[in-house]
Structure formats: C-alpha cells, structure tokens
C-alpha cells in the first residue's frame, strides 16, 4: 500500500484554486463504470481538464486505464475511509489541469496498481504499451524510494538513474506527493512531520528544478503548515487582515491597465496573490510587510516582443525600481521559466512587483516540464529547438539532471552521491553565467570561479590558475553573480593539480567530486602548510592574478559648461531639437519653426538637409560661453546602447548612468533579436563635458558592445 491515506476534510486548503469535490468523486467511483461507451462520471472531470489543453486527445485509453485501476483497487480504502481509486483520480486530475499529455495521465491512473494490486507490469504493457508500462514502473520504484530503509542512498541513486530518462515519471511522483500532502491530516503528527520533511528536502526542490511552479507553491504551503505551524498561523492572520476592499495593488493595476491601453498594447493585467511561504519570506526579508507585498501584478501578452513593449511603457510612465529588474527572457533560468520581472512605484510611493510574460510563458511557468507534453513526440506546434549546447533544448533531460547522471558515474560510493545530491537540491536558486564562447553555465547561487572552471572544463580544471570575470582578472575564489561573464584560465602545465582549499570555494558537486577524486588519486600531494597556503589562490602555483578594480567612470568637471545657444535673433526662443539632441561642442544649425521659435539641430542631423531641401532658410546658431539658459537644466542627449542580452543588463546600465550623474528622461528597450538588445536612453547631464566619460562607463558594462549618439530621442510617455 502507499504510505499515506486520504482525508478530504484536511484543513489545509489554498485560497484560490477551485477543487473538485473528492467526496463526490469517491461516491461516483464506488458506483463503478456504468457504460461501455460512455466515460464513467468519475473520470469525466479528468477528461474535461484534459480536453481543455488537448482538444483532440483520444480519451479511450484513459477510460480503459480508469476501468482497470478502479476494478483492481476495488475494496481498498484509504485511511480516511474513502475508496482507494479517489487517490489516482485526484493525482491524474492535478496533472490534467497542468496540461499533461494522455500517456502521462494514463500512467498516472495506473500508478499504484502494480505496487498495490494484482495487476502486473506485463499486463500494463500488454494493454497500454511500452511507454505507459515504463512510466508506471518508474513511479512504482520511486514510491519505494522515499520509504525505503537502510539502502536508501543506493536505492535513490538507482531510481534516479532509472527515471533519469523521463521527467514524466517525476511529474507523476510530484502530483502523487501533492495529493498525499493535501490529505495528510489523518496521519499521526510524527508521520506528518517526517513526510513533510522529505517533501521539503527532496520533492519541493525537484518541483522547482522541473519548473512546476503550481505544484511547488502548494507543496511549500502544505509543508510550511506542518513544519512551522505557528509561523503559518501568523502568516495566515496577516493575509486575512490584508485582504480587503482597498488593496493598494488594485490602484496600481488600474493605472497599469490604462497606461497599456493608451499605448495600444493589448495585455491582461492580473493581481496574483503570493502564497503563504512567499509572504512569509518577504516578511523575513523586510521585517515589515507593505500593503503591496501580498501579491504581484501579472501582465500577460501575446508575443515575446510585447513583453518588452510593456516594460518600456511601465519604465516610462512609472518610476521603476531598477534593482528589481530581471530579464528571464533573454537569459532564461534553467528550469524553463521565462518572464520579465520589474517593480514600479505607484501612487503614494507604494512599490508593486510586476511579472511580464506571454500566455505561453505563463503556462510553462506554472506547469514546467508537464506543459511540454510528450517529450518524444514531434510536436509541429512546438517552438524550434535552440542550439544543442542550450540546456533547455532537451526537456526529457534538463541540464541539472544530466549533471546528476554524470556524478553518479564519478562518485563511486553512494554516500558521497547522496550527500552531494541533497546539497545540490538544497540550493534553491540557480544563476546563469556566460561563457566567452557564447554558451552559458547554470550554477548554484554562491558558486565561484572554481565551480565555473570544472563546469566548463571538467577534469582539465585541475590546472586552473584564475579567471576573467566580466573581462577582469579574478581569483578562483571569486563568487559569481547572475549574468557574469566568466572565462576560467588554465595553466599550460598539465601536471599540476588543484589546491585543497578549492574545496572551500566549490559549491557544485561536480567540482567537489573532481577535486576530492584528484586528491585520492594523488595521496602524495600533502596538504599545503596552512601558514603559507593562500586561502584564495590556486595552491602551489604561486600568487593568483590580482583582481583589478572596476575602473571608475571617467568624469570631468573641468570642461566647458553648456551655456545656452546664441542665434541671430536675440529675442527668439531657442529649443534644442529632439531628433539629434545637440550638446557642446556639436556644430549647430537652426530653423525658425511655427510661433517664431528657433529649433537647433546638430549640423549633420538629417533633418537639416531635409529642411534645406524644402527651401527653409537655416539660422546661424552657436554655443555661447558663460552663464546661460541651458545651465539649469543641463544638457540632453540620446544614447543607444547595443548589447548582448543578459540578466541585470538594464540594472547595470542604469547604474552606470546614475554613477555618471546623468538622469534618465526616457528609455526604451527593444526586444532582443539573436540575443542582442538595443536600449535607447534620453539623458540629462549636468555638464556636456561628462558625455565622453558617460559613454565610456556605459561601454564598460559587461555585454555592451557599442554606445552611440542617437538621431532620435527615446519616445517619452
Ligand atoms: Mn500514489
């Protein structure tokens, strides 16, 4: 029997998710299949949910699976007293709602039959084919794993290898665990706690890695309630108190809706309540909760490019909190998740976090690998596969899973494997760093250049001597940040080996196993004298390359001040043209425009030629020295930064701009094409002499390959 039983009356319920009444399913299931041609009522909810995602799905096989499962489990009860069939039905419904394909649902209906009933694997194979049989077998084995005794590490390892070929097995396992967690109330408290701990330590990280957000958040709340009942109650009370008619997020959502409508962008603006654990985390991080912390805005659009259009509007019409900006579209996380994240300041200073994604991205964010459908089927509707080096390309084997399978080959004893696996799953966040050859590496947060070296070069990394991080020399101990570009440097001397203190900086199992392995193969390499060992360096090969500080942006305060523009008519009102935003010492040409004002362009601005072509007479204009009209406002300039897309790019660029004392008047970000992004900023500088320094500082931002003056300003909101 499966270890847990159901209790439909369990007190733990999420707020927003409508749920099928399992009691009713139970009663219907008891009546059993009533007709040969019609779907039994009990399975019809599953069928409906399945058809919603897959309108053409063939439901015959589901009906057959239900009939077999129902008849073979008949007479079995869960601890709650309900017919056992309610469990596989509920598990299958969870998967159907996430959009799983028919084969997964079929296997899910049968997932406990081989373990708990007379049904054999051969029978499953005969009636439902190899694929369903393979999935049922995988789930059966996985089910034994969690409750196994002494052989746990070795069993788990075997199971992981067995299921490593197919993430659908894990999807079923996660849904199975979710239903068991939902119905844990009938268990003794010690048993609840034990199951909740395994859920927290293994299943939730697994859900995170597989990108199944909907399962992950609910599992988190269920485990939280069992393992931290007091904090759970506090959080529940806070959420209840904050739920009222004047949600400050509503106001901001309305503003966002109007802003996007005015801009002609069709988008759906929703408020997404945070789950309990998320509210609890925000509270721990900030100490106190703001009214806007109980949810986030979710903006759903049709096309990828619309995401950037929305971002541009929000950053123009609201004050953005730039440090909150993250681009998970240009550089997706390794669990398939794609979105833009930002935060905007609403009325009265309330800060709202905003997620921007397409409907498709949303589906993948919620359902992760489950939404990808049958990984073996050729789906003509699927997006084209990216290059093979991209870990996201193979949904059956995400990058971390491949790594796992690699370690289990190199880690010879199960304990090492088990420990490293648990450590790896405990890293709840991954960062993406860029290789200089254009590829990317997914590493756990806190990973260092040691990890990057082993991730990129395997055992060749034994000869590492240092690294370049964002173009600058860095020690191997340097901790990497999301979006860094890293280039490990290897010595020519291939006989040399790692330093023991690298273990202090290695966060990834791959690096730890490789380093430990090298020392066990080289027992003569005594640990270096701790007095002389360089805690950060590459051990026996002398001093590491010194890391150089980021060059401070060059800023000149001694240059000429922008001092207004002198034109022939001293009474004329002078305006600087928006199209080319001239600054000293640009050569100028003016034209009289409507109302008698003179608009001044840079001499090479195409507008000048165009005006002359249609017969407009130019007005001489030049920069004047001394105090002038423009000195108060400073000078305006529009710059275009061409970059390779990466996380934190916008944040780093705007930081460079702020450091150079320039203010952003408006900004647009064009959607990336082939990983390239174009940012256009209209900026106000206190002093035109600061422009070269500003442009240098922007060019120094990692990923930026060109910064130039624009002919046209960024549109303002
Ligand atoms: Mn089960």
- Indicate how many domains the architecture comprises: 5
Return the average pLDDT rounded to an integer.
75
What binds here, in terms of ligands, is:
manganese (II) ion
Just name the CATH architecture of the largest domain.
Answer: Orthogonal Bundle
Radius of gyration: 31 Å
CATH topology of the largest domain: Hypothetical protein af1432
β-strand amount: 15-25%
Counted by DSSP, the helix tally is: 25
Report the CATH C-level class of the largest domain: Mainly Alpha
The structure class reads: alpha+beta
Taking the sheet with the most strands, its summary is: 6 strands, mixed
Range of helix content: 40-55%
**Multimerization state:** single chain
What is the overall shape?
globular
CATH superfamily of the largest domain: Hypothetical protein af1432
> Cα distance, first to last residue?
63 Å
Question: Which blocks of ≥5 consecutive residues have pLDDT under 50?
Answer: 1-20, 32-37, 147-153, 377-397, 526-563, 626-632
Number of strands: 20
